[in-house]
Amino acid sequence: MTSPAQRSKYKIFTALLLLLFVSVQSQAAANRSYPCDYSHTVNISEGLRLKDGSYSYDGLLIPANMTALYNFQVVDGILSKVANHMRGCACEQRPCITFCCRPEQKFDEQTQTCVQQTEAVSGGSSQQQHTKYDHIEVTYANGSVNAVNIRDVFIKRYEAGCNRKYIDKHDEVFWKWDLFANGSLSTLGRIWSTGEFCFTPVEHKKVWSLMPLTCEYSSHGFRLWIYVISLFLAILIFSFALIILVSIKAVRNGAYGEALIFYLASTVIALSSLLYLALRSRWDLSEAKCRNLGFIAYVFFMISFFLLTIISWNFWYNFNSKRICSWKRKIIYMAAIAFAVTLRFLLKFIQDSNIYQQLKPGIGDKFCWFDVRLWGILLYYYIPIFICLGLSMMFFLQTYMAIWNLPEDTLNVAGYDIKLIKAHFHAFFAYLFCVLCVWIRELVVYLSFRFRRQYFILDFLAGICVLALSISALLFLLYKNPLVRAWWHTNVTFYITHRPVERPENGIYLQEINRSSEQLRDEEFKEHYMDEIGEEGAPLR
Asked: What does the buried/exposed string (b/e) look like for 308-337 if buried means 16 or more CB atoms within 10 Å of the residue's CB?
């Protein structure tokens, strides 16, 4: 007999599978039932429907088999539900160009929305210039440029191809563009398809001109540089902590230190990948390189959080008077790496499948990292991270209770000195709490923007939070580690304060000085740190 709780879990699991199946089927059916790609269609609801089912729209006759009833729209490549409306494959009969706003509206650069001209433009002279644009310059294959009537060559459509558009009036490249006869655009060093830009009148030096605004898929300005500088400093700090831990033999040989080294190495690789992607535009990278860098960052982030959980579990295991041998630890690390790589291939399969688009991660499509406009980042990134953090905090509570129940005269646990392992435990979970705070903030930001349908390309505050996290690692994983402090005192501080006067002409004198320095160093080390690390941690030279 199954309990009610188990039956409810089975029902939830079954409902999720059913939802996934219906999403896949509906998406596959959608791909089969429409006559052409959405980017080649125009809303013809205001057109004239003829007796044979065809439509007359903007001087073009669209056959009945090239029309269909749509209940969705695609903005930024993201499918979302809207009211039913008729669309026709007009762009397959004549090239289309998109206008950001309708003739009675103007694109507001600050809010990135369309507003009425009376709200957007003040002053009669400017508004008279911002009236109607019927002609545009077209570049042909032979290199000639001619001004043509837009309606003679193109189909006009008024739709939002993307939510965020790139505008930089101070950039000379922004004002240089070529529109081709097939509806594509050359600007900013690449070719843009008709669905990746829209035209709108832009005022520059009190003159209005028709300008194409391309979809913005990378961040610019001071926000980008705050993020990049913060991430770079965080990588340096994490790398410094990694180098220090690797330099100490007593740390390398211990289970806690070994796991910390792997954790810091994974974090540095993941952050380095994100830093590289932030510095490079999506269009500067090939699709394969873009996707691979995104998956590298994902794999090493997952490994780092798996390692945090393993460290937490190891503390609980040790305080229950159990100690895991070295070869078993390595098997656990390999299993964590294998699981992270498996998740990577699962994400690639989902991204390339016909599954409902909102369930895709979006890595390697418009962005090299997760697409925050989709639910995939929540399903495959935030949820696994919070599962790991939840397990880690559960092990923390269980370990704390185990410490509470230890006899007062306990000297060692699972072969470790009690003072040493308790110092590691408290320092690590202080750092883990900082990690939890940072990622709760990340999740809240994502969900708040997601439900308000305000999507961001780059959250520069995330870089500052990662920098703060690296500083907490410096404090709790290094400074609060007795083994690191002892090593630092004996190998760095001691030589600074007890450096002998060099007399290169007397080699025997130097040997005596070095020998006495070694003895003095050992005596000072034993005097200051023996209480913290116990007898077994003494030989740190």
From this structure: bbbbbbbbbbbbeeeeeeeeeeeebbeebb
**Total number of domains constituting the chain:** 4
CATH number of the domain to which 348 belongs: 1.20.1070.10
pLDDT averages per 10-residue partition of the chain, 541 residues: 50 47 44 74 86 86 89 72 86 87 78 68 43 79 86 83 76 84 84 83 79 74 82 95 91 88 95 90 79 94 95 86 79 93 93 84 84 87 94 91 76 72 88 94 87 66 91 90 81 58 42 48 52 45 35
Q: Provide the whole-model pTM.
A: 0.70
Are residues 86 and 32 in contact, defined by beta-carbon separation less than 8 angstroms? no
Yes or no: say if 257 and 251 are a contact pair by the CB < 8 Å rule: yes
Domain boundary among 50, 79, 94: 94
Residue 221 CA to residue 223 CA, distance in Å, equals: 6
- Residue 12 contacts by C-beta under 8 Å, 6 or more apart in sequence? none
Residue with tokens 């705050």: 226
Q: Can you name the residues that pair with 192 across neighbouring β-strands?
A: 185
Determine the length of the chain.
541
Compute CA distances 165 → 172, 197, 435, 448, 458, whole Å. Answer: 17, 8, 34, 22, 14
Residue 13 lies in a domain: no
The DSSP H or E segment spanning 187 is strand 185-187
